[in-house]
Amino acid sequence: MKKFLLLFVGLALLACSKDDDNLNPGGPNPGGQNLDTQDFMWKAMNLWYFWQGDVANLADDRFSTDQEYTEFLASESDPALFFNNRLRFSEDRFSFFSEDYRDLTQSLAGTTLSTGLEFGLTYDDVNGNGQLDATDPVYGIVRYVLPNGSAASADIARGDIFIGVDGTNLNGGNFSDLLFGENTSLTLNMADFAGGELNPSGKEVPLTKAVLTENPVFITKTFNLNGTIVGYLMYNGFTNEFDADLNNAFGELVGAGATELVLDLRYNSGGSVNSSRLLSSMIYGTFTNQLYLRQRWNDKIQEAFTRDDPNALDDFFASTIGGGTAVNTLNLSRVYILTSRSTASASELVINGLDPYIDVILIGRTTTGKNEFSLTMVDDPDRSGAPFIYTQSREANINPDNEWAIQPLVGRNENSVGFSDYTAGFAPDIEQGETLGNYGILGDENEPLLALALQEISGMSGRTSTARQANAREVVPFTHSGMFTPTRDNMYLDKNITLPSLEVGTITIGDQ
């Protein structure tokens, strides 16, 4: 007797009911484990994943029987291992998952469990092998303090250094648990940097974690350089819930008569693609007929989107933000952007999107090199036109037995001249790292990176680098506090996505 399992590659499969997704109850299922999560992961990745065509396990013809499919799902009992070991492309550095979609979606909105202290982490390579080992000493350097966390009322500030937590020195083997574990309170053990040496100071700083929402529009101010008004904006995350705040900040700069801009993205690891489009419009102009970016998806999705409209994936500069409010724009012909290794994804999208139109001058260090965007996906296969893509209004439709979410990379953004190959990051025009003992005050004209930008604008030669500074010890973080939130270095697509009716093919299963 023949039995048929239809694996529709496209909406035909994914629009089927949850009952149709049952994993062959009569077939093998070692230990009787619930495979809903693995099933959801495979189906979502098979349709949407950017590298679907490069991963053998995601091939449309990968399975010849439903038994083979079920055994594959059961090959990893842990969904995390299944995602990483069975589905991820080897060159994919950024796709990730969350055991609870609520944690992920709240983080994308800027809400996380935090002390309000943002910091970078670096280490001493005691073994000299160029990599972080479990015994290598780790220390943290405070980048900035959020105004609404416990750190705001503690005796700690930008540039301060800590080497331990609760009396235990940080190292490559314990820093993650001590700093980002389930502990809701911790005490930082501080250190001083003097004479080129780092030594314990004996100072302790107690902190408490709480649910915080960070407004990424951190500093907005202007400088008058011999009659030239220079705007300065420190923007720490592309969070679309704060697009109005971003627009208001540009309104202040426009009102002050700013004709130059220093945009500080050194700690901005990304976020909303649309927020990057709005920010770029606020810098360059509201030219709604000029291309900002063009999306590039996997072959199946690309064909579906562009079959009837070759320009369906084009996004242009914006004239309004949400609700129809007009974009406040400076209409600049150049912009100075402060960067670091933590400058990633949507921040790099701004650099790439503006580059064909205006002079983009980078000051700092080479950026991360993340040129793909992602989508939040949950076990909601019945969403019309966009199966598995999370939307808050459909939370009641998510499989109650599976709260996992995945954040896979699903495409790349090309700029108006078709460029998207910046996986090595964008190198600065003016090199300058941050150094121990000389972090400076953010927004102060003497802060090293901002000072370089102001020197360039004023015509003074500021093209110096850390290497030329005597007795400087540059901080080269291997990670930072933002990397331990669900969003990490994420660039997510936050626009309405509806695929046209599509059925690429079906697979008929042989004799059972």
From TrEMBL:
Species name: Robiginitalea myxolifaciens
Gene Ontology BP terms: proteolysis
Pfam entry (one): Peptidase_S41
Domain Tail specific protease: 200-413
Keywords carried by this UniProt record: Hydrolase, Protease
The name this protein goes by in its record: C-terminal processing protease CtpA/Prc, contains a PDZ domain
Keyword Protease among record annotations: yes
One GO molecular-function entry: serine-type peptidase activity
